[in-house]
Each structure stands twice: as structure tokens, then as C-alpha cells.
Amino acid sequence: MSDTGNDGIFDIDTLKDIGPATKTCLREAGFRSIKDLVIRGPTDIAEATGITIEKCTLLCNRAREILEDKGVFDKPFITANQIYEKRKSEYRIATGSKNLDELLGGGIETRAITELYGEYGTGKTQICHTLCVTVQQNESEDNLSRALYVDTENTFRPERIASIASARKFDPNRALENIIVAKAYNSAHQEVIIQESPNIISLHNIKIMIVDSIVSHYRAEFLGRSFLSERQQRINRLLHILLRIGETCKIAVVITNQIQSSPDAIFGDPHIATGGNVMAHTSTYRLYLKKAGKNRIARMVDSPYHSEREILFTLNEQGIGDPQK
Known about the structure:
By secondary structure, the protein is an alpha/beta fold. The protein contains twelve helices and 13 strands. It has helices at 20-28, 34-49, 53-69, 80-88, 98-103, 124-134, 158-167, 172-177, 187-204, 216-221, 228-249, 276-282, and strands at residues 92-93, 108-109, 112-118, 146-151, 179-183, 206-212, 252-257, 259-261, 271-273, 285-292, 295-302, 310-316, 319-321. The strands form three sheets. The chain has a nine-stranded mixed beta sheet, sandwiched between helices. A two-stranded antiparallel sheet has the order 1-2. Strands 8-9 form a two-stranded antiparallel ribbon. α2 packs antiparallel against α3 (53-69), α6 packs across α7 (158-167) and α9 (187-204) packs parallel to α11 (228-249). It starts with 19 loop residues before the first helix and ends with a strand. The relative contact order is 0.15.
């Protein structure tokens, strides 16, 4: 079982100098551990509980200090070499394509958001389905990694999981059993699912959280320029919660995104990712997927340290793989 979530050392009771009434109020509002406090932040806590923002800020600071002492977070001031050594042992998840793994520096990185965007049919959902299987492989029976799949476009198909698992010589029933699926019916429901996910991550030893797609409901519900500001604010809030979930729970977060046409594009590719600067600034890694005949192209568009280059991968019975030479 993962150390994330509700085991004793991260329980709300570890917070000192707060009364039982405050603890009860936090639990009734859905804050089951000190990690929940750090993930949601003072503003969310105040809105959900009615506790003053000043006290909520104090609670979050105390929770963060405990997580620093437990080694979940780094101390405020450490050397770059310490960060470098820690990152060398960071857990990564194989994508199923050696070319794509190489582009990502070894696979999907934990404690980060990896965004996949492109037009329909470029392989976004196929990568997500494949990751649900690859995350489970090469793990011992008593420490089996699982996946959490948030489906907003009704694109999750268990049949595809079963076929990918069979092609990879992995038990299809076991593969399906170790994927938790949450279907979001609207943007408000999607936000509730994301907010409640840390407890599911703790209970089921989730190592990767997939949101396919992140913007679908928002594009359908917030139409016109008059709602653009509200839409962007809600997407921004949701993305920062996802980022904190990845950092605090030590999991990989993968989101898919749609594209739109840029009206002022005269030369080059007119397609840009939906979500504007909110998406661009929050995603740790951004991959642009395109069709190339029977193959697909993945280009690293934005990364803190990768170069901007592209590779070829293909869709096959194993989910995704590399083109035959």
C-alpha cells in the first residue's frame, strides 16, 4: 500500500494546537488527511468549511511542514545537487514506445503533468489506454501499481485494455481489475472527482492519473467570450490541484487536450492547443501529436529541460509501439 493519504502519519490528528471541532469540520468537508489540505489550499478550505482564510493558511503551512519532515516535500532551501540526485531516482512509467520513452527522458515522469494534444485520431487516447497496462507491468504482487482514469469524453473502452494486455502477455482480467475509472458528466462533476481523488490514490496504490480530456466539458459549457474568463479561472484552478496531487502523492499525471485553429495563422501549422496560456504555463511537459500516414509524430513542444524535437510512433495491437524499420 502506498504511503499517500489516510494512514496514521498523515491523518488530520497529526496537526497540533487545533481543537476537535475544527478537525470534525475539516473531515465533514472531505479533508481526510494533511495532504488534502496542501493539495486544495487555503482558499478552497475556507470555502468548503467556513473557517477563516487566516486560519486555513496556518493549517496549510503546518501541514506542509509535517510533509517536509516526513520527506514528502523538500526542505525550503536545498542545493541544486541534492535536487539532481533525487531526480535521478525519480520513478518513470514506460509508454509502450521506446521512441516516445526516449523523447520523454525515460518515460512519463512522476510529480509532473504531461499534456498530450492534437487532433482526433492522433493517438492521445491510445497512449492513455496503453499507460493503464504498462504501469502495472514489472511490479510485484504485493506492490502492484494501478491507474486512475478520469473519462470526460466517453472514450474509455475496457475491450481495448483487454486487447492491449493480451498483446503484451499480461492477464486481461488482472489489468482491468487494477484500473479505477471515474466518468465525469460535466465540469462540476469533473472537479469533484479530481478533489476526491487523493483518497482513491491512497487506497488503491495509484501510480498514474489520467484525465481524458481536460477541457472537453469546459468548451461545451462555457460558450462565448463573456464566459471565457470564468472558464479559464476554473481550468487554472483544476490544473493546479492536479499538479499538487502529482507532487504530494508521488504519481504521474497525464492529461489530453484538444486543439483549435488559430485565425491569424498565415504560415505553418494553424493548430494550437486549447486552453491558452493557462494550459501552457501549468503543464510540465507538452507533446503535440500529429498524423504521418500510418504512423504518428510526437513533438516535444515545451519542457523544462528537453530539447524541442520529434519522434515517430505507431498504433498497433499493443496499444502504441515503434514503426518497423
